[in-house]
Design brief:
By secondary structure, this protein is an all-alpha fold. It has one domain. 87% of the residues lie in helices and 0% in strands. The longest helix is centred in the middle third of the chain and has 25 residues.
Length: 39
């Protein structure tokens, strides 16, 4: 079962946009936390 192509068909572009934004937020949060810890 290939979930990748399935997701592309059902979810559409907004799903990829949502996950992309979520990933960016997570990365920014991690960078901020590391900066706080290193103070």
């Amino acid at each position: 079962m290939d979930h990748g192509t399935n997701f592309g068909m059902h979810g559409g572009g907004w799903m990829w946009l949502f996950w992309g934004l979520l990933l960016v937020v997570l990365v920014l949060l991690i960078v901020w936390l590391v900066k706080q810890i290193r103070k």
